[in-house]
């Protein structure tokens, strides 16, 4: 099931089966001829952004901005998470109560995505906290040996 949003106002749900039965012929690069219910439609893809899954499409001389979300995108949205550039993570919070075993960064450090930020011991397990993005460390709210509660602010990034 795909959820398609057109011009940020109209939302449609389309099944994979209905898309497979669509009568579409590519007439040239990014130009298509569509036959639906005995009606001929000309479509052209003007712009694409695969990371954001957005497209600008011209249909019979009208331009539409389209976003396509598959089942996984819909599940992630339902859980309150967003992907990639849609959401910028600016702080790291403790996912569970525990003890800070190591702080691997200091204020002003430039970090890359997946760099180790700190190690949190919880339930006799070491949990390595990695950076979710590239950025500069703005502040560190914990130190070695400190105990933290769930959702305690650990590290902030510069915006």
UniProtKB/TrEMBL annotation:
SUPFAM superfamilies: Single hybrid motif. Residues 80-158 form the Lipoyl-binding domain. This is Biotin-requiring enzyme. Coiled coil: none annotated. Pfam families: Biotin_lipoyl (PF00364). Keywords: Biotin. The keyword Translocase does not apply. It comes from the Bacteria. CDD domains: biotinyl_domain. It comes from Winogradskyella thalassocola. The keyword Transcription does not apply.
């Amino acid at each position: 099931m795909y959820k398609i949003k057109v011009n940020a106002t109209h939302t449609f749900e389309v099944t994979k089966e209905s898309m497979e039965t669509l009568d579409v012929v590519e007439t040239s690069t990014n130009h298509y001829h569509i036959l639906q219910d005995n009606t001929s439609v000309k479509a052209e893809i003007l712009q694409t952004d695969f990371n954001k899954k957005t497209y600008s499409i011209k249909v019979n001389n009208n331009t539409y901005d389209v976003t396509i979300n598959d089942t996984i995108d819909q599940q992630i949205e339902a859980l309150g998470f967003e992907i990639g550039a849609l959401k910028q993570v600016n702080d790291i919070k403790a996912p569970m109560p525990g003890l800070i075993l190591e702080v691997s960064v200091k204020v002003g450090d430039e970090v890359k995505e997946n760099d180790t930020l700190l190690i949190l011991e919880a339930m006799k397990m070491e949990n390595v906290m990695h950076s979710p993005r590239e950025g500069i460390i703005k502040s560190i709210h914990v130190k070695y040996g400190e105990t933290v509660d769930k959702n305690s602010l650990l590290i902030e990034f510069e915006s």
